Amino acid sequence: MYFTFVLASFTSLLAFIPSAFAGFSSSSNTNIAIYWGQNSYGQGTGSLAQQRLSYYCASTEFNIIPLAFLITIANPSLNFANAGDSCTTISGSNLFYCPQLEQDIATCQSTYGKTILLSIGGATYSEGGFSSSAAAVTAANNIWSIFGPRTSSSSPRPFGSSVIDGFDFDFESSVSNMVPFANQLRSLMTASTVSTGKKYLLTAAPQCPYPDAADGAMLAGAVYFDAIWVQFYNNYCGLPSFTIGSSTQNNFNFATWDNWAKTVSLNPNVKIILGIPAAPGGGSGYESGSTLASIIAYCKGFSSFGGVMMWDMSQLYSNPGFLDAVSSDLGLPASGGGGTTTSATATTLKTVTKTTTTTAATSTATGTVGQWSQCGGIGYTGSTVCTPPYVCVTTSVWWAQCQ
């Protein structure tokens, strides 16, 4: 009863709040979001190692940066790979204080107009959500006190006086009681907007198979999201499944997500962002050149399309010219799109029941799999053994990859 009242209250309030954010635009189809924090290209030193946040913010070709990741929630902890080297432990917590990030977040927001989000989850998140709705609400209040506006001198502040522009959910496995957690964060953000005028964003990064195994409950019309960046990589419905020149797609299911936006989403103006790898090492299913341009042009034909998300910043900067090309592609006219899909989910989204299968992949192949190649997931029949020193890491029920 409490959550129903809160949900109705902040949904009504949101109707009176302007949609413009610092960087993100709900009326634009050229938003570009790029994850920062994991240094996934893997360089420890040199120009291709992950640089401090402000180094990237000077670019005018993207407007949203999710910081990856807050890897535990109940007892909060962060992991920003090599960027954590400049941070110091906060006594009495698992968090660290990052003076560079405190400075850089403020600079990115005020000087460069970027939307800075904190992404919660990641591939190593293993808490599984919360044991109860009450525990979820308590956790949301705690996360808000740590990363929202400073309200208490007793809360640890990893980013000091800087305040992020919202939260992103990147869960790669099933989670419990995440709806009350998300709705409490949304309620706190909305209340802060009403009192201070600062606007906040709530996003998620589901896999492209619908319904998403991790975020399904939140996406079933239960949480008000401003945007979702669907991961069209590491999955059978990713970029390589797109059929160039066809207005009717089979496995490439952007139409399904567009239909979700129009018929299921609590926010009828939610933006669907096309999630892509920023380089060949950013995930399986990397596409570029005319193929990617065709995919973007197709997606632009859907009214919910809001731009592109990339994984991740270090991969992008190892791939010269790619950001320029994506930015240019987003400026081109739509080509087709708004078409149909042969997937039955496109017309039955409202009645779909979220199910999660635990069926393991059965290997019928011999040999080993190289770095970044698939080694598991539902329906996969290839080798599950990675070439040393790589190991098979599961990132979703559909995908495991040698890393």
UniProtKB/TrEMBL annotation:
Reaction equation(s) it catalyzes: Random endo-hydrolysis of N-acetyl-beta-D-glucosaminide (1->4)-beta-linkages in chitin and chitodextrins
Enzyme's top EC category: hydrolase
UniProt keywords, alphabetically: Carbohydrate metabolism, Chitin degradation, Chitin-binding, Glycosidase, Hydrolase, Polysaccharide degradation, Signal
Span of domain GH18: 30-333
Molecular function via GO: cellulose binding; chitin binding; endochitinase activity
GO cellular component: extracellular region
Signal sequence region: 1-22
Transmembrane segments: none
Pfam entry (one): CBM_1
Residues covered by the CBM1 domain: 367-403
EC number of the protein: 3.2.1.14
Taxonomy, superkingdom: Eukaryota
Single biological process term from Gene Ontology: polysaccharide catabolic process
Family affiliation: Belongs to the glycosyl hydrolase 18 family. Chitinase class III subfamily.
Protein name in UniProt: chitinase
Native species: Hyaloscypha bicolor E
Record lineage: Eukaryota, Fungi, Dikarya, Ascomycota, Pezizomycotina
